[in-house]
Design goal:
The structure is a single chain. The chain is mainly α. The chain folds into 2 domains: about 200 residues, SecY subunit domain (Preprotein translocase SecY subunit, Orthogonal Bundle); about 200 residues, Preprotein translocase SecY subunit, CATH 1.10.3370. The chain contains 16 helices and 5 strands. A 3-stranded antiparallel sheet has the order 4-1-5. Strands 2-3 form a two-stranded antiparallel ribbon.
Length: about 450
């Protein structure tokens, strides 16, 4: 049974049909809100700003184009993503948060509540920063009026914060009543929703060049197909660690031992290292923009000008371009190890195995098991870090050279590809699970 047949079978079941219709309706509502703009923004200045800021491009990617159009959902689910990452890191830093996370369903609800509160706080802070950035953009035509009073600023901040809370609610509704992870599907819908206009603009730019003008588009499509196949293979790649369960007495019954395996994903960290790396790489450029109004004879004005001109993915010369991309690759590589260590605690896994009378054949329980899992994860994470670096850094450069399309137009192409493929695979697996529960044969081989 292929994917289309599986969707058809799901539509024939009332429960799954309602879930799919509900999910689709929520995503359509999100796209409608993404096209409702907040009044008062200079559209031309907004377009110029987003054409040269990678971090803003990432934020716009997660908001489905809402930030570049300054819509009511301009910040998308970015504050929620940041809040979730912070809470994950807090489980490592704070013993209290770590204990709460282990309290089962009640602990999960408390963590979710804390994440919501933190999302609102981050949304207010981020909306204030966006209004300041748009108001003080060092161009001849700022995005927001320089004479904006506090009432107008507060109205914009409340509107943007409300949009983020609305999307957070949409995501939780999809997770509870629909199919798939709600937040991931909202990001997925935002990326897919921008695809038609992006493809149209790329084709329209080559329309007057004859058949030869479409060769770059054809080359880009071929690279995209190969990259999608590569991402699918790596995203589903796992290292299976054999697990043996000993015979034990539970509730007055004897549970026989059995053999299973512990799956370790190659890309355990997902796209989080890319978000960290882009944030670090664009931070100097954003800081330097605040010094462009300094006296031209000052050293910090010259430093800011040099950073703005040279610290970019496509610098003025080959040396700066190579240096920037090597640093970017290094940050992705390092953050992949860091985030994997945060989300996959080998000591906790070893303790859980021992608690349930399970062990890895040939490895003693406890500390030796944790050391063994740590060594295996280090090797797997190395491959995952190289994969993320290749997709994020090398793929846009290769696609630009082959298709002659500027690198700046594809800088976030690898990140978008990872998100779209990852969310699509996860949603397909959840749909497969629902079908298998109803005695339908799965469509993922």
């Amino acid at each position: 049974m292929n994917l289309l047949e599986a969707v058809y079978s799901a539509l024939r079941l009332p429960e799954l049909r309602n879930k799919l219709i509900f999910t689709g309706g929520i995503l359509v509502a999100f796209r409608l809100f993404a096209n409702i703009s907040i009044p008062g923004a200079n559209a031309a200045a907004l377009s110029n700003l987003f054409s040269g800021q990678a971090l803003l491009g990432l934020l716009d990617l997660f908001s489905g184009g809402g930030l570049s159009s300054f819509s009511v959902v301009a910040m998308g689910v970015n504050p929620y993503i940041n809040a979730s990452i912070i809470m994950q890191l807090m489980t490592v830093v704070s013993e209290r948060i770590k204990e709460i996370s282990k309290e089962g369903e009640a602990g999960r609800r408390r963590i979710t509540r804390y994440t919501r509160y933190l999302t609102v706080a981050l949304a207010i802070a981020q909306s204030y920063g966006i209004t300041i950035l748009f108001q003080n953009e060092p161009t001849n035509s700022p995005i927001l009026s320089a004479n904006m009073d506090w009432f107008q600023r507060l109205a914009i901040m409340l509107t943007m914060t409300g949009g983020t809370v609305l999307l957070m609610w949409f995501g939780e509704l999809i997770t509870e009543y629909g199919i798939g992870n709600g937040i991931s599907l909202i990001i997925f819908a935002g990326i897919i929703g921008r695809a038609p206009s992006t493809i149209y603009s790329a084709v329209a730019s080559q329309s007057g060049s004859g058949i030869a003008g479409y060769l770059p588009i054809i080359a880009l499509v071929a690279i995209a197909i190969i990259a999608i196949a590569f991402v699918i293979e790596v995203q589903q790649a796992v290292r299976k660690i054999p697990i043996q369960s000993a015979q034990r007495l539970t509730g007055g019954r004897t549970v026989q031992g059995r053999q299973s395996f512990l799956p370790l994903r190659v890309n355990q960290a997902g796209v989080i290292p890319i978000i960290f790396a882009i944030s670090i790489m664009t931070f100097p450029v954003i800081i330097s923009s605040y010094f462009k109004g300094a006296p031209t004879s000052s050293w910090y004005y010259h430093a800011a000008t040099w950073i703005a001109s040279n610290f970019t993915p496509n610098g003025p010369n080959l040396a700066t371009t190579i240096a920037y991309n090597l640093i970017y690759f290094g940050f992705i590589f390092g953050f992949t190890y860091f985030y994997t260590a945060v989300t996959f605690d080998v000591s906790d896994v070893a303790d859980n195995l021992r608690r349930y009378s399970s062990f890895i054949p040939g490895i003693r329980p406890g500390r030796p098991t944790a050391d063994y899992l740590g060594a295996v994860m280090n090797r797997i994470t190395f491959a995952g870090a190289i994969f993320l670096g290749v997709i994020t850094v090398l793929l846009p450069i290769l696609a630009s050279k082959v298709s002659t399309i500027p690198t700046t137009q594809m800088y976030l192409g690898g990140t978008a590809l990872l998100i779209v493929v990852g969310v699509a695979l996860d949603t397909m697996k959840q749909l497969e699970t629902q079908l298998v529960m109803r005695q339908y044969r799965g469509f993922i081989r």
